[in-house]
Design brief:
By secondary structure, the protein is α/β, with parallel strands linked by helices. Helix content is 29%, strand content 20%. The chain is built from 10 helices and 13 strands. Strands 8-9-7-10-13-12-11 form a 7-stranded mixed β-sheet. Strands 2-1-3-4-6-5 form a 6-stranded parallel β-sheet, with helices on both faces. Helix 1 crosses helix 10. The two termini are 34 Å apart.
Length: 353
């Protein structure tokens, strides 16, 4: 590794895994040591991700046994899990158990939902199966890097992509006591948020040129948003959330509406948002409404807000694969290894995507 930090990606053939691989290739400290795929062990990484052929011309997917051997023989590995919900927890548990026997201590950031809840019961209330590793839950913290100064656990669970945008928009208002703790949120997401396997919701002829709601007031990210908002602010808030599918591949745009507790104009609210995120290098607060094209493909989040009377709306645009998943996970891993939080993540959005 030539003094660089070995990075391992689990669940290696999905869109989030592909984004992780792209970010690792650009990172000054992390170097890919293995990418695991149960379905394609031994196959070239570039077959699954042709756009990464120049970064990984010779890399091949590894099996779980190969990854376990690597982790047990190496110390200080950075493990990113992009494995599916319901699979990631048991996989991470098996690998960490083997590492503990070998007296190795990798750091893990899980991008699935498996460690976002404090208890197995809370997880099972949202997902229709038992938790895969309930004994590991206490070893994970679920939070955005912008909302937690000090990490008290060895591992992190990154919130979901919609949850990331909702939390960025709502936590400052709740933390400063500016609003009644009831928010009405609508959010539109690109098709990559539904994963790589073609479904009716992502099939291009059905999604192109169309916008439609799904899971209205019943989206699975809402319980984790409530839990993360409570942990970040101490406020128990309710979120009435309507998600929408958009006719584009990457990006999320969220509108979070609430009622102010005290009189405040738009300028003062923007000042409050800027003050809250003054130490957050990836959050930009501006008077103009955020646009998905300005952040898609980057780790930046653009926020704005408007007040009329006692009504307030905060707007947030992020990239679902980067800030909402792989990039946010990289932020955490940078911090866990004592690196600058911005390492490998400062590239601007390409625009015109």
């Amino acid at each position: 590794m030539n003094g660089r930090i070995p990075a391992v990606v689990l669940g290696g053939t999905g869109y989030v895994a592909g984004e992780l691989l792209r970010l690792i290739a650009l990172h000054p400290q992390f170097q890919l040591a293995a990418v695991m795929s149960d379905s394609q062990p031994g196959e070239p990484v570039a077959v699954a991700f042709p756009h990464l052929v120049h970064a990984y011309p010779d890399a091949r997917f590894s099996s779980e046994d190969q990854v376990r051997k690597l982790l047990c023989e190496s110390d200080g590995c950075a493990v990113f899990s992009a494995a599916p919900h319901g699979v990631s927890a048991a996989l991470i548990d098996r690998l960490l158990t083997a590492c503990e026997r070998a007296r190795r201590s990798p750091r893990v950031v899980d991008i699935s939902a498996d460690f976002r809840y404090a208890s197995a019961g809370a997880y099972a209330a949202v997902y229709p199966h038992a938790h895969g590793a309930p004994g590991r839950l206490a070893q994970f913290t679920c939070a955005l890097p912008e909302h937690l100064d000090k990490l008290a656990t060895p591992h992190v669970a990154h919130p979901g992509c919609f949850a990331t945008a909702m939390l960025l928009a709502s936590v400052p208002l709740l933390a400063d006591g500016l609003i009644a703790p009831e928010l009405f949120v609508s959010g539109i997401t690109g098709s990559t948020g539904s994963g790589r396997k073609p479904l009716d919701g992502t099939h291009h002829p059905l999604r192109h040129g169309d916008v439609y709601a799904y899971g209205a007031l019943n989206h699975r990210h809402v319980p984790e948003v409530r839990a993360c908002a409570l942990a970040a602010t101490g406020v128990e808030a309710e979120f009435a959330f309507v998600p929408l599918s958009g006719p584009f591949a990457r990006g999320i745009h969220v509108s979070a509406q609430a009622v102010l507790r005290r009189a405040l104009d738009t300028g003062k609210l923007l000042e409050a948002l800027r003050a809250f995120y003054r130490a957050a290098p990836f959050v930009r607060v501006a008077g103009d409404a955020p646009r998905v094209k300005d952040v898609a493909g980057s780790n930046f989040a653009h926020l704005s807000a408007t007040v009329r009377g006692r009504n307030v709306v905060v707007l947030c645009a992020i990239d679902n694969l980067t800030k909402g998943a792989a990039g946010g996970a990289m932020q955490w891993m940078n911090r866990m290894f004592g690196l600058a939080e911005t390492s490998g993540l400062t590239a601007s959005a390409p625009g015109w995507t």
